[in-house]
Each structure stands twice: as structure tokens, then as C-alpha cells.
Automatic annotation (TrEMBL):
Transmembrane segments: none annotated. This is ABC transporter substrate-binding protein. It comes from the Bacteria. Pfam families: NMT1_2 (PF13379). It comes from Thermostichus vulcanus str. 'Rupite'. Gene3D superfamilies: Periplasmic binding protein-like II (3.40.190.10).
Amino acid sequence: MKITRQWFLKASTSLLIFSTLLLGKEASSQQRIRISIATQDQVINTSTGGSVIREMGLLEKHLPTTGDYEGVTYDIEWSSYTSGPPITNQMLAGNVDIGMMGDFPAVINMTTFRRESDVETIFIATLAYSATGAGNAVMVPADSSATSLADLRGAEVSVPFGSAAHGMLLKAFQDIGIDPETEVTLISQAPEVGGTSLRTNQIDAHANFVPFGELFPFRGFARKIFDGAQTNVPTLHGVLVRSDFAEKHPEIVVAYLKALLEANQLFQVNPELVSADIEKWSSIEKEVVYMFLGPSGLQTIDPTIREIHLQSLENSITVLRALGRVDENIDPSSVRDWVDDSFLRMAMEEMSLDYDEVVATSENYVLAGEDDLTGEPIEDPSMAAQLWVGGEELTRNFASIKNMLAKLQELRADGQAARVIFVHDRNNGWKLFAENSFFVQNGEEISAFLLEEDARAFANEVGSSVMGFRALQQSQQAMALPQ
């Protein structure tokens, strides 16, 4: 066959077209998609949305691999921050696609994006929440003479600026008539710095969010004088995604939420074991993790976005607006246009999960089962107690504080010790550290309280007195002695 110039050009063109198609197909099969997720490892409210997914490889398990995602390589970038504001900065810069933060930082994120960016963020799921505001707290050094917020007039108080704890602190001062601008000196300190300041008495008080209000007292160098639960205002942590990422990769957003749902399930089935894992990943003691997220814990693990969560976000705007921290023209109800649970509902549908059942499981996640001492059923979680014995993987649960104290004496007689002892507030069911609680005995019944004023009110009602945990133990030991 004679090879002419025309034939050569035609053949070359065909080869070029074929090569282009082949390379295009190869390029498509080698497509890389970055997924950048920012969490807060030490803020254990974000654990099931952050460290549990990351360390257990749950996102990789659920990422799409067919259709437009066939042959895709995922570059998953995880980062961790000590509070929400830095995550907002990274999301604004386009460095983070999915971020986790508390209610006050979240609404600041919303307003900041609407003011400064061509895209928005979307609130797509709740991580953990408290209907009463439990989790935020104000602490003083362990040897401080201060017993209430009123004692902080003229004091130097630190708090992570822009955090949920910052919003709580400003509102709490306002409620008791202390002007946070003129009557206290507020400085911004990250949790680890605030902890050091408390330990070394360099600060009069420090306010913080989950889990530091319980962690620092658990470690023995701080004492809580105000609990966010006293505000009776709901608080939460949630998941935000950049709108451009969600529009381009809705399947990936759904995959992330499927991973979150699985992480919640894993925790609810094995709370002590997963709490121990979270301790390894966050350096937050497992007892504190369990206190917040375990059964009858201070926070409820619930991914849905319901009215109570919308109220939390709306309240955040109301407080920040009144304090001049956001534009006074922002309507609190604007958060309702910001949230979108359609991705979560799709994730539930793909996992064959019923929405109402997920809610019910979360709301009914309370102490149950049999008493470790007597075998009787635990019927009232607010009157229950728990021991976590050193060297044991699981907690020991009791229907009453009286039964727990009897078992505690047995354990001590055998040379065993409890790493932590949990009781629950009689009025509200909040999980408490026994050593930091107030007790009232009424006949055979022993009740625990977070607040001394609540304990005194109940003691007056039943004609009894208020005791600390040490005095309660001494009383029970004396009653157990032969008469």
C-alpha cells in the first residue's frame, strides 16, 4: 500500500483523536476529590462527627464509588481546632468544606458568610445538645472563695471569645446585673490556656464549653460556680457545610451523614468502650466523655434538626444581637432558612432508618437494666447511681444512691476503688460527679442535686439537712455499724 501524505495526515488525526479519548477516560478514572473536614477533638460533643468517624474509617466506608464517582480518589483532610471561630475562618478561605461548632459560633458563621462571601454555609445536622444548656460552665480555682457569679464583680475572667461559653457568660452576667464591659475584665483564652490559668491561680475565673466545665473539676484544680443548665436555655453543637461543596457533591454530604449516624449507633451500643477510644484520640478522660454522651448523660446524641435546635440557634442570635455582637437587624428566624435536613433524611433513607425511631432512641437513651447490688430493675434514672471501678471496662449501675454506697463499701473492703462515681440531679436528671454534688436523705431515700439552693429547698420540704458526699458516706457507714 502506497503511503501518501494525505493518508499519513488522516492516520495521524485518527490516532490523535483516539489518544485524546483514551487520555480523557484515564483522567476521568483518576479524578481526585478533596474532602476537608474540621472538627474539635477535645470538644467531645463533636466526637461522633469527628474523631470516631476519622479513626474508625467510617467516611471511607460510605463514600460513593459508582456513577460519576467511579474510579475517584478521595483526599480526606482532617483538622482539629480548639473552638469554632477558627473553623469559620478556614471555611471562608475555602480550606474547609465541612465544619463542626457550637450554637453561638455557628450563627456567627452564618452571618459572616452572608456578609463576606459569595457562597453560604448550610446547617445540616445536630451532633449533641442539651435542652437546658448543660455543658457550658464558669469555674474558679479550687481554693477560690468565690461561690457564685455575683462574687466575680471586679474580677478578671477568661473565656474563648466567640464561643458558646462566651455567649453564655455575657448573658449570665447581664441577668444578674453585672456589666461585662465595665464591671469585669474579660480576656480571651483557649481551653488549654484557661486550664493552666486556673491551675496556677493566674485568673479569677474561666468560662468554657463542653467538656471543660466538668473536666477541670474532675482533674482537681477547679471548682464550678455556675452551670449552663441554670440558664434553662437549649444549647447544641452541629455540622455546617459550604453550599458550593454541597451543590457539587451532595452524595458526599450524604455519605458523611451516614458515617455520623453509624458513629452515633456505635456509641449508644458501647458507650464505655467508645469513650475509652475517644480518650486515646482526644486526651479527655473517658469518665468525662461518658458523663456527657453516655446514657442519662449531660448531652443528647441526636442528629436531627427539630424545634428545640432551631430555638437554640434563634436564642443565640437574640443574645448576640442584644449584646451588640452581631448586626441588630438580623432576624433570629433567619436560621430557619439556613438549616436543611434533606441530606440527613436521605442518609437515613439509604440506611433504612426511620426518622422517628432515631429521635426516640436518642431521647430514651437513659440508664436501665438491673441494680448491680440487688438485681432490682432501674426504674427512675434520676434516682440512679453508677460506679466505674478502676480496671473495669464497664460501669456498675444502681437503682438508688443507697445501693451504690453499700456496694462502694464492699469494694473498698476488698481493696478496690472507684475511679468515678456518678449520681443524678433529682429535679432534672442531670448526670453529676458525686464528689461535687449536694445530698438530702429522707428516710431510706437519698437524693442528689447540682445546686445547693435546690438541695436546701428539698431538705426544708422533707425536714432534713444538706450534706456533701463525704458527710453522706460517713452517715451511711455509721448507720451500717452494729447498734
